């Protein structure tokens, strides 16, 4: 799972904007993006530009509170990207989510971590730039997307077993009706499906089609990786490893398929040390959780890979010059 500072523009976004009843030119102009963005053979967006595109779409639609649901109702899921269409060819939702997790960074500034246990499969989404405010509708749209993927591919009214957002929509009623259960506030953007639903066969399974798409997706991911700094790659891996308590240089190097010495050398060429990247990643995430959520210090400590809240509090005071509670009161 890799995260880049820039990612490839998907031509299918033009179709999504059109299906929502908007003029593509007006949206691009409002987002201060090039008028020929979707016509370019290879165009890239930064995280800030990605968010601006979303914000422009929301504003031109009149800031509808049910935009994620409108997308689900008016846009064919195959319109999102070749990756999404390829995942429709998976054997089941477990396989589809793992494929999405590997290539998610092709679609935007985020990582997807998938965990399976004896009862369910949980997908956790994280946006990698914690400094840039995330438009409120993006996270809800992701939950709608995963649910729509499951329902479309199985032709069953799949109901998630758990739904969490860091900030809840102001009107939850239409979302509860769509999902079949309420969204709850939590530390991360998560969605879970029962083991039975996650293993339910996709009627759209098509192995030859996946074999057709996979080389292209891997080529795109490889090309994007070349544009990323080592620090960005390390931060991406830490976002995935921290909740499991693994934040050592050895664990990160192993995930990046390089030796510890090579990792140190690459970071040194960027005038950085591993501990600097680790501390900055933890600091950014801590500030994000304290500002944007109401989760306890114990939960934040766990998500950042600390053994207990006291260790987290001491580290935060060193970073920020004040306690986590004092920082939270200022938000």
From TrEMBL:
<dbReference type="Pfam" id="PF12833">
    <property type="entry name" value="HTH_18"/>
</dbReference>
<dbReference type="GO" id="GO:0005829">
    <property type="term" value="C:cytosol"/>
</dbReference>
<dbReference type="GO" id="GO:0003700">
    <property type="term" value="F:DNA-binding transcription factor activity"/>
</dbReference>
<dbReference type="InterPro" id="IPR032687">
    <property type="entry name" value="AraC-type_N"/>
</dbReference>
<dbReference type="InterPro" id="IPR009057">
    <property type="entry name" value="Homeodomain-like_sf"/>
</dbReference>
<feature type="domain" description="HTH araC/xylS-type">
    <location>
        <begin position="232"/>
        <end position="330"/>
    </location>
</feature>
<keyword id="KW-0804">Transcription</keyword>
<keyword id="KW-0238">DNA-binding</keyword>
<dbReference type="GO" id="GO:0000976">
    <property type="term" value="F:transcription cis-regulatory region binding"/>
</dbReference>
<dbReference type="Pfam" id="PF12625">
    <property type="entry name" value="Arabinose_bd"/>
</dbReference>
<keyword id="KW-0805">Transcription regulation</keyword>
<dbReference type="InterPro" id="IPR018060">
    <property type="entry name" value="HTH_AraC"/>
</dbReference>
<protein>
    <submittedName>
        <fullName>AraC-like DNA-binding protein</fullName>
    </submittedName>
</protein>
